[in-house]
């Protein structure tokens, strides 16, 4: 058990940004919110390891859904997830005992911490993705059979919606996404109410700690003028896939998602080479060459394709990709729970429409590599 | 108080079809369902005048929403509205005492009668439109200040959604429409839970009786070989606006609605004239000439523009408009509750994007005219 103080919040935002693989929304605003609440005297949120949770405790996933692009011009009210949680609790007739992040990558790492302060509830050290993914059914909770409903949504005006009982999370994804778009493109959610026993079976453990340590290592490297990319790989594992300059970005909003591709022309060891990465909120597949459909695959979902600023190690999210940026592409092996056949059916390349085999990157998620 | 027997069901389906002004969905399937339940021994639904309802009774609007076009190829399960009602009752913590049709025009006239058999509840002799309209906020209940939420939707697979508290019915329309589209284009609903006192203030009264009498008059005219159109006008009021042959239909699905225009070339007294009617599920505006944007306005919402088969008086709904059909266009004065400034702001031509003044057709809704 540990507590999220101001310094930890700073580190988590950096680490969660990198684990967001381009999506998940920028955790920066959530971090500012969290730090303001702490400065105003709020008790730092408690982070609890999954194995400390009683089997009969009620754990609820809280966070936000919508295209990260929307978040740039429209601020969240800041308590959408908490009103969604209260709506869900009222529907269930029972209070939640713990909160758990749906995804540790991006803004949904910091929102449960804000909700923890607003509710006084502890947060689980773990999440349902070990990264970020664009759709709700891509959480390990859903992949390993935990029902996502009852589910509640809340928008910036505190308008709410409840889905009492849907047959699967993909249906919730469709219904909730349609409401989220009408809600202005962003909604707070509270769903996957589950028992402690179910949580322990399917959570990706210790990822809040991982985000904190990852961010702390990057911040330390910046202070000490060592290589922040070495620091990242030393904590989360994985390898450099490419380094270069962004030379083309194609980005469009489609059905509530930010979709597109980014092209990098190589520098240093990758001079004269080109890499193209396609994304749907998150980076999905990286291929050699300028043709998104043609080149040899370097990495693919569920492995993490993280674009970071080559100098600072700062995460470069989908919505801030821009011409000229010097960036390094890191390939991080996916958590083991995302590499099973059951998981690959939902989060593998085929689930995103790519008719290619998944070739796992070497290494182990969360086990640092020397570089 | 009266009861809906097999003959009344037959008549209501014809009358409701005419009052549907082209939309509202075809009441034919609901009629078949109702008649089957009656044949199987169900007690005929009780129809109760609004002034017989206690002020503190709970009345709920039940029916279906979605584009009528969808209903042609996808049958309703037949109890969506009842599951929506049960979901709403559970959320409210209280059982409903009466059902009320949201719109007497089209399929939502017969669905509450089916729900009445499924639940044993009586049905109010009245509705919220006196016709059909494409959007939820166009009910008198909403126009005159009754809150539409809590609201529940249910789809063909019994998947449900609850909107506990939205600020206005236009917001419910957007949120519920988005879910309805994801539900396959049709959903059963239960909403506008209201007290008897509120019902009496804003219901359009006696429209179930009107639909029954209107249909009965048409059926009698067919049997007796008198003019069914005279029979219609003799019951509901209004006038012949045009008679001719359908020579063009432009119809498209857009945002869950059937939109388009139909052109008729005149016959008899209207020979050498042309009439163009634009619709959004329902017929909205009728203009002289072939140019939808140009000609003199003959009738406009909220007045009822009813297209009927010239020989049989059968209603011609938007989804069955076809080249060559001999049709007569009837103009029926809207109910008084739809002609107030408050109502015209929501259901007048301007609410549908037409920058024209509303010129009321002469006569009184439900008061027959000689022709």
From TrEMBL, chains A, B:
Residues 169-361 form the S-Me-THD-like C-terminal domain. Coiled coil: none annotated. Residues 9-163 form the S-Me-THD N-terminal domain. It holds the Pfam family S-Me-THD_N. It comes from the Bacteria. This is N-methylhydantoinase (ATP-hydrolyzing). It comes from uncultured Thermomicrobiales bacterium.
